[in-house]
Design goal:
Layout lengths: L7 E7 L2 E8 L6 E6 L9 H12 L2 E6 L2 H4 L8 H21 L6 E6 L1 H11 L7 E4 L24 E6 L7 H11 L3 E6 L15 H7 L1 H10 L5
Parallel strand pairs: 3-4, 3-5, 5-6, 6-7, 7-8
Antiparallel strand pairs: 1-2, 2-4
């Protein structure tokens, strides 16, 4: 069985093609978290590996996966229909692996920037998920706060955690706080002081892997706080 130190590489069928994934399952996990990358980096980015590895150490099974454009070596992100299809396939794969292990822990959807936004759109279109974790939600393009990407968020009923850097140019602080407030009690917002869109803090040089790992504790705490009753 894969562990935090030894995730296994898997292949996930998406339509007529496939994407790569990396799956790790500690003993008796209390949750599974499926993680999608941002627009500019794939599933093997050190930030992604650090984040999922720290979650594995805390009792969370994880599945990282590539979107089709990344798998094909293209730079421009997939349009929402293709990205959502990949999300559905990855979530189904994670659920099947939990079932084959004889366990039925809740399966969460999480993503860095673009990956999180596509996860939320997939859930808005009916994809089952225990909840959503956003690692730097891209609320608007940098310098264009009038172009909000929030309409679909207000109909979501699952628990949601927004982790956001206070220097993130993709989410003006007041605007994001307003969005989270309008979503209601199912949504929580946690600011990372001084963090930019990659959660890097000026004057505090850290490896991307360590930055990713530092976000695992608040995420694991949120997962534990939202374990379904029964």
């Amino acid at each position: 069985m894969p562990t935090a130190d030894s995730p296994i590489t898997i292949t996930i069928a998406v339509g007529d093609g496939h994407v790569s994934g990396a799956y790790a399952r500690p003993a008796s996990p209390f949750a599974t978290l499926v993680l999608a990358h941002g627009a500019g980096a794939g599933m093997e980015h050190p930030f992604m590996r650090g984040f999922t590895g720290a979650l594995n150490d805390d009792g969370v099974a994880t599945l990282r996966f590539n979107f089709p454009y990344r798998e094909a070596g293209r730079k421009f992100p997939d349009r929402p229909p293709a990205a959502i299809a990949a999300w559905r396939a990855a979530m189904a794969e994670a659920a099947a692996r939990a079932e084959s292990a004889g366990e039925a822990e809740p399966v969460w959807a999480a993503g860095k920037s673009f990956g999180g936004r596509m996860a939320s759109m997939a859930v808005a279109e009916g994809m089952p998920a225990a909840g959503l974790i956003y690692l730097g939600y891209p609320l608007h393009p940098p310098g264009k706060p009038e172009k909000l990407r929030d309409e679909h968020l207000y109909g979501l009923e699952t628990p949601m955690l927004f982790l956001q850097g206070t220097r993130d140019t993709f989410a003006t602080r007041e605007l994001l706080e307003g969005v989270v407030s309008r979503i209601g009690p199912t949504a929580a917002l946690q600011w990372c002081e001084g963090g930019d869109h990659s959660f890097a803090v000026a004057g505090n040089k850290r490896r991307a892997e360590d930055i990713g790992a530092s976000l695992a504790a608040p995420v694991a705490a949120f997962l534990r706080a939202n374990i379904p009753a029964g």
